[in-house]
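quick q for whoever's on today - can somebody do inverse folding on this one?? i tried earlier but teh output was garbage lol. tokens:
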């Protein structure tokens, strides 16, 4: 006879997969006729973006573009430094086993290495190593038995647990074309050399069946100026963004996880000379949003009948019941003596942390490697620019609090800031690393289905047994084996604490 059950159906994430894949991309950049000849290359920066990806069998095809900012020296009395902005499309295949188009996949590209040369004054050869950081989440539907719908009594081992129930994953594109007003002090802007982008001040507000997301796209601009005394300058502007994202299942218990990814960025200077304080900016920001609820569920972990034989099919699955983020900041200071030539001015700098490798061993995490800091320098006498890269050694260790064997952790550097103070030829460097550890509690569940109730021949069972406790035993296992109840064993043997039995202890079992 089939036994009917009451069930609670949940959608839980399986353990997240993190995969890093590096690819080299080559590009020949031609200096346009509107620009002067390149006499030397001072610096090349590459910013990769992913516009789309297609999941295929054991691979993902990624399409996107790389924005190159090239600072180069020219033979010109007024402007001995010029900038070139070039966009290069690419298509790459990432080999990833057992990937599925129904998974929630986020791919973030980072520039790991860049090599460049100047074959002639009109061509710049660039070879860029892009690190694709792939994060894959897969939902699993599980059905937990909460009660039985039958007349016969069934012994049940119950458990209470809080689950992160995934309601919906959604990717939304926030796209905009804005005229950005530059600060008054940047009205002398002649040519942009480099733009660094970042997203900050993100907020979320619920509104009926929608959520409103907003934040700032920050632009850090390095440029040449129409200024005889100071021809390389910096300025900062923020571009606010916002969007409404629709969900059909928002209620008072709804919670949201949002991860933002800049998918595209482009700019051009305003051609109208009367409004040269503005630049046209095009961008796309992807908001990866997960709608979930924390659900408290009482479910039946195990069961048996004292009078019937209950047979069933089951499948074991590992799922994430809960996840938390543990953030920690590290401050690293270094003093570099005689690192700069004489009569040199530090104009600008930026940091690359892709060579820092996080390693985890149980509850201990170690960050090892070098933070690369790229310097832009200027000779005070001649005004000529040059580039230099310095390495800051990183060797930091920290402990994850309350780490247990059923946890899985992923460690990554979410943000890095560097502050450099120049004193003659010496540099004082202060590096701050914002390290995020994402911890998932992984539990094994037996998904039970098709329970069949069959008659049990009680005459084959002994009415009295003496059982010697073995390692790993508990009263539930013993009662299930002998078709009795925990309460009866406790009462018969005058056991004070049902959760404590000792190996070698003899237990009297009476059916």
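ok took a stab at it. sequence:
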């Amino acid at each position: 006879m089939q036994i009917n059950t009451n069930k609670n159906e949940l959608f839980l994430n399986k353990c997240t997969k993190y995969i890093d894949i590096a690819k080299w991309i080559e590009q020949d950049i031609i200096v346009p006729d509107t620009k002067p000849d390149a006499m030397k290359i001072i610096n090349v920066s590459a910013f990769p973006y992913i516009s789309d990806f297609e999941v295929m069998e054991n691979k993902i095809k990624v399409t996107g573009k790389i924005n190159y900012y090239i600072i180069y020296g020219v033979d010109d009395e007024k402007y001995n430094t010029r900038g070139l902005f070039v966009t290069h499309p690419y298509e790459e295949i990432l080999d990833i086993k057992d990937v599925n188009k129904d998974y929630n996949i986020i791919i973030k590209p980072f520039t790991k290495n860049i090599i460049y040369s100047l074959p002639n004054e009109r061509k710049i050869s660039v070879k860029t190593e892009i690190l694709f950081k792939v994060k894959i989440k897969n939902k699993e539907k599980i059905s937990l038995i909460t009660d039985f719908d039958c007349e016969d009594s069934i012994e049940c081992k119950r458990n209470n647990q809080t689950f992160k129930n995934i309601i919906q994953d959604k990717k939304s594109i926030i796209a905009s074309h804005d005229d950005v007003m530059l600060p008054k002090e940047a009205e002398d802007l002649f040519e942009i050399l480099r733009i660094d982008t970042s997203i900050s001040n993100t907020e979320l507000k619920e509104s009926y069946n929608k959520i409103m997301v907003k934040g700032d796209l920050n632009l850090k601009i390095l440029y040449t100026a129409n200024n005889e005394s100071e021809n390389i300058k910096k300025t900062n502007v923020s571009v606010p963004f916002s969007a409404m994202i629709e969900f059909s299942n928002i209620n008072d218990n709804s919670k949201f996880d949002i991860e933002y990814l800049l998918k595209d960025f482009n700019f051009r200077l305003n051609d109208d000379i009367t409004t040269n304080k503005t630049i046209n900016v095009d961008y796309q920001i992807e908001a990866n949003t997960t709608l979930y609820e924390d659900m408290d569920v009482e479910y039946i972990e195990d069961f048996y009948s004292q009078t019937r034989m209950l047979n069933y099919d089951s499948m074991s699955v590992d799922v994430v019941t809960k996840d938390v983020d543990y953030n920690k900041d590290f401050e690293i200071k270094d003093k570099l003596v005689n690192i700069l030539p004489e009569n040199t001015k530090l104009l600008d700098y930026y940091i690359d942390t892709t060579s820092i490798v996080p390693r985890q061993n149980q509850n201990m995490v170690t960050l090892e490697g070098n933070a690369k800091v790229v310097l832009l320098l200027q000779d005070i006498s001649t005004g000529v620019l040059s580039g230099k890269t310095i390495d800051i050694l990183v060797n930091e260790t920290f402990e994850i609090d309350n780490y247990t064997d059923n946890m899985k952790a992923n460690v990554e550097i979410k943000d890095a800031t560097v502050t450099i103070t120049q004193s003659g030829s010496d540099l004082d460097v202060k590096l701050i690393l914002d390290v995020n550890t994402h911890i998932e509690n992984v539990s094994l569940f037996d998904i039970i289905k098709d329970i069949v109730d069959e008659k049990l021949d009680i005459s084959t069972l002994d009415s009295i047994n003496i059982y010697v406790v073995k390692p790993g035993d508990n009263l539930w296992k013993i009662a299930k084996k002998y078709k009795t109840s925990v309460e009866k064993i406790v009462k018969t043997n005058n056991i004070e604490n049902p959760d404590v039995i000792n190996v070698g202890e003899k237990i009297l079992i009476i059916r």
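fwiw The chain has a mean pLDDT of 92. also The chain is about 5% helix and 70% strand. so keep that in mind when u check it
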